[in-house]
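As a warm-up, study this chain.
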Amino acid sequence: MERYGRDWRIWKIKTFFINLHAYNMRNIKIPPNGDRPIGHNFPPVPFPFELISLEKNMIVVGANWSGKTRFWSRIEQLNNPSMRISAQRYLQISPTIQKQDFETANHQLRTNYKNKPPTQPQDDYKPLMVSLFAEEARRNERVMEAIDNQGKIDKEEVPLSAKDKVIDVWNSIFPYRPLKLEKDRAYAISESREFSANEMSDGEKVWLYLISQVLLAERNCILIIDEPELHLHKSLMVRLWNKLEEYRNDCTFIYITHDLDFAVSKSSSKLIWIKEYKNDKWTWSEIENNWVIPEDLFLEVLGSRTPVLFVEWEKWSLDCQIYQAYYDWFTIIPCWSCTKVIESVRWMRSNQHLHKIYVYWLIDRDFHSEEQLASLVNDWIFSIWLSEIENVFLVPEILELVCNHVGKPEKKEVVLNKIRDIYNDHKQQILFFASKFQIHNIINETLGEIDSFSDYEKRKKELPDLLDKKIKETILPSETWDIIEILKIYPHKWLVRQVQTELEFTKNLYQNLVLSFLTSEKKEEIKRYLSKYLPKIW
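Now compare it with the structure written out below.
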């Protein structure tokens, strides 16, 4: 130990200051990076872990056979309390739930997978559902005790049971197929037809399993979820995990995946890329939050399997999950910086001989002219046919579908008229944005073509007239024009939030409902409507 004394003392001091300055964060022990030399930031060799501070969650991504399973197994061993939710699990579920006291049921659930190898499938669906019902029964007993002691108790004082929360999460993600957990039964309803839990699809059984596991986990637990995307539709998986993180903000979520769609679209405080596992050591690196995926990570994880579509949105955006649902044959990569996207596309295109990945880019229409959009296609850059992707939720076909679904078909024209009114109120502001956009383009194009001082002097004299001409050419549709023409030019992302109040929707309920249709029997109908406004990318 003496040979490591100095390194150990320095590491302890560093750890102290991490705890002091990151009091609202949680320190997690993870396997050490085998590629990192002993230094002042991490423990020396005899201490088989590194400390990493997390604000809310961590995503671990790596190719198959990179050692991800061993990695999360080691994390489970190093941290307490922790719980793994394995990708390997049996999905047998009984149509009726037996009664049992919570302490016994919970003990059976928590000891079911302990001391078993991480590759062995978890067979704990039955004790999971028994615990879910038993936890509510215990809650009810405590409420009755409180009533006996106090004489009465306000409804607001009654805590939600884990079962109540499971139903809330399920119904917020899958509003078209409400879940029922009552009378010792688990079942769902679809178009007035009731079907038991054992009749659910594998995907639905997985959803119920994951939601229940997370909401029954002990307080302040480290939840290690292997392949969180398994059996989940692309348009739903991020929303599901975000919702569970909201409910369990006391827990730390660690996601283990080889799915880049999930890795780049899930908001995370840390993203770890496992490169290699050899001689019981992992080589890994941390990727910055606002990142463009490194080229070698592309080559390792993607191989030649799927084409890549860069899109212009924030990776945790709810609205832009429409891309993941519609372009489901692509790996969707978000990037907030157009410049970085162009660099990545150019690198991948210019090095096509090194890989077999086809790379494309999809941008918002914004205020580009038809000529500009046509020229971009030559560089494999495509545009949606509305100003922004959020506007696709308000096209007449989808609006009519939503109004009919909630039993308010007469509201369609009310919402369309409100869009026209909002547009008319902001018309001058939109004209300013459109003109500003064109001015930036003209200046960039004009200055980019200058190759001498004399040319600069000539362009400088021409520029004012050129700008005036372009601004005069900027014509906006009148408020009485077709609604599609307005959606092509209206640039504000919050339009859908303003008009959804006419349907008595709040927050993101309108978008959630539309996205849920993409995993229902309405999927093909929705995709047919979207095909009118999203480009065909080949």
